[in-house]
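User: Can you recover a sequence for this backbone? Please restate the input before giving your answer.

Assistant: Of course. Working from this structure:
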């Protein structure tokens, strides 16, 4: 985050936008782990559209890494920027990783002092409560296998099929790219094959969910919106990440080279 940012600046921002702000608002940080600020704006708007009146959403863009995350290689190099963004704003009630690959989710949960929600997991859990057969429609074909692995990991392999509309992530932001028409055509194919609900497999699709749901007459789940409601629930229940076992704080040790600043300083 830039100069003048941080928790104190955040509280001033909350007070200016919410005159009744008394410090008790739920504060949710959304990190776009790619470096495309325009996509962060889309994600932030989608999150605020569904957030409760007493929830303050702050959406930030990673300061380092790829401009879009399309496959395993991009994902690996997006994680340091993601972790840095989470650590820059420690005074929040929950955070959301706004990439459908759930980029760095386990590392984030290990490092962050607040609960962290991934939009793929949130979307699948939400869709699974309202439909038996789910189609996850993502961007490029290269993303199908990584998302199939996530679907399997989250326990939805028998209920969810992953397909791609063959649209590059950044084309979602380009007028005249034909991205929306390709997405609609792929949704129609998925419904013809028996899908009962659609999950949008990219955070950049967030603003399209409601219109697509009306157009096709089925639930269309945006992972950003689903993650906001789950983050609010975790904050409301006063739950945070378990430090026993899998998500125990990282052990103190030295890191070298470019990653020196990410070395764990304390462990618990």
């Amino acid at each position: 985050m830039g100069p003048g940012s941080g928790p104190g600046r955040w509280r001033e921002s909350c007070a200016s936008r919410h005159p009744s702000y008394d410090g008790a608002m739920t504060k949710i940080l959304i990190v776009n782990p790619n470096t495309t600020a325009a996509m962060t704006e889309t994600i932030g708007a989608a999150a605020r559209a569904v957030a409760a009146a007493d929830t303050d959403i702050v959406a930030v863009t990673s300061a380092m890494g790829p401009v879009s995350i399309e496959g395993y290689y991009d994902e690996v190099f997006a994680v340091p920027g993601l972790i840095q963004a989470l650590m820059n704003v420690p005074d929040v009630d929950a955070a959301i990783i706004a990439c459908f690959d759930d980029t760095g989710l386990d590392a984030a949960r290990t490092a962050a002092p607040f609960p962290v929600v991934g939009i793929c997991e949130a979307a699948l859990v939400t869709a699974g409560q309202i439909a038996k057969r789910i189609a996850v429609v993502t961007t490029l074909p290269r993303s199908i296998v990584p998302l199939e692995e996530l679907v399997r990991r989250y326990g939805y392999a028998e209920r969810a099929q992953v397909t791609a509309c063959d649209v590059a992530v950044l084309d979602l932001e380009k007028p005249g790219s034909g991205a929306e028409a390709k997405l609609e055509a792929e949704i129609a194919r998925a419904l013809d094959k028996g899908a009962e609900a659609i999950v949008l497999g990219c955070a950049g699709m967030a603003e399209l969910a409601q219109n697509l749901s009306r157009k096709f007459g089925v639930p269309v789940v945006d992972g950003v919106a689903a993650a906001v409601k789950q983050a609010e629930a975790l904050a409301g229940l006063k739950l945070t990440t378990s430090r026993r076992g899998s998500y125990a704080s990282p052990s103190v040790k030295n890191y070298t080279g470019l990653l020196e600043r990410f070395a764990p300083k304390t462990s618990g």
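That completes the design. The chain has two domains: 7-119+226-262, 121-222.
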